[in-house]
Fold this protein.
Amino acid sequence: MTKIKVGILFGGRSAEHEISLQSAKNVIEALDKAKYDATLIGIDKEGKWHSFQDSAFLLNETNPKLIKLNQSSQTEVAVALGTSERPLVPVSSKKPHSMMQEPMGVDVIFPVLHGTFGEDGTVQGLLKLAGIPFVGADVLGSAVGMDKDVMKRLLRDAGLPIADFLTFRRFERSEISYDKVKERLGEPFFIKPANLGSSVGISKVSDKSTFEKGIETAFFYDNKIVIEENITGREIEVGVLGNEHPIASIPGEVIPHHDFYSYEAKYIDADGAGLKIPAEISDAVAAELKMMAVKVFKTLECEGLGRVDFFLVDGKKILVNEINTIPGFTKISMYPRLWQASGIPYAELIDRLLQLAIEKHERDSRLRSSV
């Protein structure tokens, strides 16, 4: 059997770079080596692409705080647009504009990228231009899934229940009033960068003394911020898998051991949160969550995979928080654990995602590009 050549794409120019490295390590280790040949493609923090030929692609791989790309064991590559046969072209580090060796072929790309320049439609657009099948949502689904402001407006217009929120852009900085925000949203409330994930840049504001610092922190990561009301409820998450006919996993619950489910709790502190799978909820609530997760997935034009996060208030009221179109794939990540508990082991989940990517590409390739 001819093996399928899979490009595992990770790293990236994002505040979630280190998280991506952890996710990629787990995906690579779990890949079915009898069915797939992996090409490791790491994007450094400057945006350069590198191909790694062996397993020593990470330094400090067991330390989430110090993990980084091992750039001494790599070849810089460029993506050739317009062809999907051999799209990765090695570039000489001494002569950046000259080509060396033979172009490398991949049959499908698994973007294990989180945050901006990876999960927001930018890489997805590049891969479409290059004609390469890839796992996950297309350009539109990726973009609206990343932008919390646009996402919430689309969910609201689709009749899905969400928490109240306000949006501000950098040029509106002088108009952001603590008193007006408190009057609208109550207190405490959350300040977030509009286009980022993994709880990076998020502040929980409980009084006026922390308000300005929270605004400053959010604007450090994005030119648009979202301020959301605090919801006192349980944090429930549901995995979604599929293209035209997506299915939902059993719901799981995140039980933060910190003040909220922060970056530290998710990726650094192994005891930062408890994950209860399945969540201890009624069958009726579980069925409603699964139905709503699929509706969110379809409303936001997603495909392949997504993790939909909810708040459950008083055991019955459901509010949609957000979707993650490339959820974490680390050992302690919720998405693969939800599917494991739903009967799809980690390696099989990766296989299904790759097959969905190929099916989506074949479907789209049948569309006419001329009159």
In short: The chain has three domains: 4-134, 145-161+232-364, 165-229. Residues 346-365 form the longest helix (20 residues). The radius of gyration is 21 Å. The longest strand covers residues 304-313.
